[in-house]
Amino acid sequence: MAPSCTLNRYLLLMAQEHLEFRLPEIKSLLSLFGGQFASSQETYGKSPFWILNIPSEDIARNLMKRTVCAKSIFELWGHGQSPEELYSSLKNYPVEKMVPFLHSDSTYKIKIHTFNKTLTQEEKIKRIDALEFLPFEGKVNLKKPQHVFSVLEDYGLDPNRIPENPHNIYFGRWIADGQRELIESYSVKKRHFIGNTSMDAGLSFIMANHGKVKENDIVFDPFVGTGGLLIASAHFGAYVYGTDIDYNTVHGLGKATRKNQKWRGPDENIRANLRQYGLEKYYLDVLVSDASKPSWRKGTYFDAIITDPPYGIRESTRRTEEACSFPRSHVPVSLSYHLSDMFLDLLNFAAETLVLGGRLVYWLPVYTPEYTEEMVPWHPCLKLISNCEQKLSSHTSRRLITMEKVQKFENRDQYSHLLSDHFLPYQGHNSFREKYFSGVTKEFTVELSSC
């Protein structure tokens, strides 16, 4: 008989996009629902097939109610590098675990899934017939079966060198599908109110999952823009709140972003976006506010802070300062806001206002030739959980940084040493905008010279 640990083995079929984001999402969600990701399981790389030890089927189902990085999960009954190894593995699987799904009153079907290879119908039928040794007593129902079983074959990652035989073969009972359909149903293309930098729907849900957002949480976005990150958090049942320095964006005024539309309509705003998806009840408010000068009483308010600060490319980095034009008249003046200052303020704000265990999830733009891990801003109250790269161009990228609050914030003066050069190697990226466009110019010049 197989070891008892096989009783809790599950097979995850992962989507083949945002590869660096997959592992942190699965880890965060398992942690959220009471599971744990064993360190021995961190060797998947780019493969779409992951074998996980999960404590219960309920946790597996809860995981799939949230993930956008995984397509499906199966209770793993057998696994081998050849058909013979697979059949041997299945014969060692405890019969008592099979019986509830194979009895005479049940209906079932078997599906064949291949990665990086297409099989003929004849080949699929041959694989199904080879499983006749399994104790199926129920009836086949191809339309509405009670139980679905799958044979999954892995032919590697290289479409130009597809092997004759699969590298690995898996057999399992289908448990649930992930939330891939959210990417389409929440697509920015269909959204009522958008801006120049509205966050892609898939990445918005990934960020909410990295932040372990759950029902009745309070989630804050200090650079809210058109509210895409609020929508993803509200979908998972969190109450959402945000601020932005841009009055027109917060109030849905000014020129429209969409092609062939000159001005924004009377109901193009963040609240309308949440209303579009039936999430208005989770909308707390959005205010015009300068992120460099948070107007908050001291305290811990937020379960998660999830944000995409401006990089100075399509949205300017700005803060305000009062200029005295007359003795009793103070006029706010818009000033540039260095990226290093912005992220220092963000980390200080998160350390001060997050509950213990709360998470900060944000995008950090970097100039790739100069990037090192030491450049990621840090704070003694915050622990780095994950750091995932999304390439923007040949010379720039942005990194999704997830941090968790692990100790109580005392006072801002205590962290003044973080302003020193030793603790701010990211200062070199204050000129990210210039480096971004410098690289674009160089690429264009190379293209012209090669013509």
How would you summarize this macromolecular structure in one to three sentences?
The protein is an alpha/beta fold and about 450 residues long. It has 12 helices and 16 strands. Helix content is about 25%, strand content about 25%.
Keywords:
Rossmann fold; disordered N terminus; 27% strand; 2 domains; disordered C terminus; 12 helices
Provide an overview of this structure:
This protein is of the alpha/beta class and 451 residues long. The chain folds into 2 domains: 8-178, VC0802-like (2-Layer Sandwich), CATH 3.30.2130; 182-418, Rossmann fold. The protein contains 12 helices and 16 strands. It has helices at 19-32, 57-64, 83-91, 95-102, 121-129, 181-185, 201-210, 228-235, 247-251, 270-276, 339-353, 432-449; strands spanning 9-14, 49-53, 70-80, 107-115, 139-140, 147-154, 168-177, 218-221, 239-244, 283-288, 302-307, 318-326, 329-336, 354-367, 382-391, 396-405. The strands form 3 sheets. The chain has a 7-stranded mixed β-sheet with strand order 2-1-3-7-6-4-5. Strands 10-9-8-11-14-16-15 form a 7-stranded mixed β-sheet. A two-stranded antiparallel sheet has the order 12-13. Strand 4, helix 5 and strand 5 form a beta-alpha-beta unit. Helix 1 packs across helix 7 (201-210). The longest helix has 18 residues, at 432-449. The chain is elongated and about 70 Å long. It starts with 8 loop residues before the first strand and ends with a helix. The model is unreliable at 1-7, 322-331 and 440-451 (pLDDT under 50).
